[in-house]
């Protein structure tokens, strides 16, 4: 699976991005830069497609400070224009606003801890998913302003599982990595000279301290990717993947509309 012609994939994806942006009547690309591998590869592809018209947005939201350092280093290494907009305060204020107006749940502990570890059950995800949705708002601000497309970073593994926030990091215009599973994204990243620290970092949505894709999904990318590409998996793994995929399929569809 890993034995792919990454040089050709790279140049085909650069051409594809250029065509999609031009066909949309747009002039460039805006991407969220997390310091993770998917956004590093995507931003570099965009930068090669539109060297002058690619904008990376670094948007920490009570995030691990290491990630911002990695994102800045990546942007500077490859000459990607970027801005940092820290969303921690607006995020906290939004939670405070909910707390002020809705007395049903007490969010003081979450607000004071600045950590979603204090939130349990559905509250944890409800608050966590607001982070990518705030980022999406900023990405579209810059897309509208500059006549750019919002370029998403979702890969084939995440799309198959629906492992993204609906209208958050899933709220995008195009997804250049959408036909590459995570292990293939790693192959492409190596070929493109992405910093090995970024390539070997544990994949994480970074929505709360210590979150990792593998722990949350309960499967490794090796298991997920071999199943997606070659159909190789034991019956239990295959069933688990299909169950998650079925539950999240709505994320890839348009909202249901009555047919009467
Ligand atoms: N059948 C259906 N038809 C239409 N809509 C349906 C639906 N079932 C739920 N929904 C709607 O969808 C909502 C649930 O979806 P959503 O809001 O996305 O929430 P949900 O899928 O519960 O959470 C997002 C997941 O993606 C992960 N994530 C997020 C961001 C980045 C990354 C990453 O890889 O870096 C991962 C995150 O850790 C979490 O596990 C429901 O509250 C409901 O509004
Ligand atoms: N702090 C952040 N600043 C800007 N964008 C972010 C930030 N955190 C997440 N994003 C955006 O959300 C996307 C989805 O996150 P995701 O974690 O799947 O990708 P990644 O961090 O690039 O790679 P990995 O999955 O290996 O962690 C990112 O690729 C990026 O575009
Ligand atoms: Mg990440």
UniProtKB/TrEMBL annotation:
Look up the record and give one Gene Ontology term from the biological process aspect: NAD+ biosynthetic process
Name any one GO molecular function: ATP binding
InterPro entries, sorted: NAD/GMP_synthase (IPR022310), NAD_synthase (IPR003694), NH(3)-dep_NAD(+)_synth (IPR022926), Rossmann-like_a/b/a_fold (IPR014729)
Annotated deamido-NAD(+) binding lies at: 133, 166, 173, 250-251
Q: Which CDD domains does the protein's record reference?
A: NAD_synthase (cd00553)
Q: Which UniProt keywords apply?
A: ATP-binding, Ligase, Magnesium, Metal-binding, NAD, Nucleotide-binding
Question: What cellular component terms from Gene Ontology apply here?
Answer: cytoplasm
Q: What superkingdom heads the lineage?
A: Bacteria
* Reaction(s) this enzyme catalyzes, per UniProt: deamido-NAD(+) + NH4(+) + ATP = AMP + diphosphate + NAD(+) + H(+)
Pathway(s) per entry: Cofactor biosynthesis; NAD(+) biosynthesis; NAD(+) from deamido-NAD(+) (ammonia route): step 1/1
Binding-site residues, ATP = 32-39, 153, 182, 204
Binding-site residues for Mg(2+), renumbered to this chain: 38, 158
Q: Where is the NAD/GMP synthase domain?
A: 12-255
Gene3D superfamilies reported for this sequence: HUPs
As recorded in UniProt, its EC number(s) are 6.3.1.5
Function text: Catalyzes the ATP-dependent amidation of deamido-NAD to form NAD. Uses ammonia as a nitrogen source.
Could you describe the subunit structure of this protein? Homodimer.
Q: Which family does it belong to?
A: Belongs to the NAD synthetase family.
Protein name per the record:
NH(3)-dependent NAD(+) synthetase
Q: Write down the species.
A: Halanaerobium congolense
Gene name tied to this protein = nadE
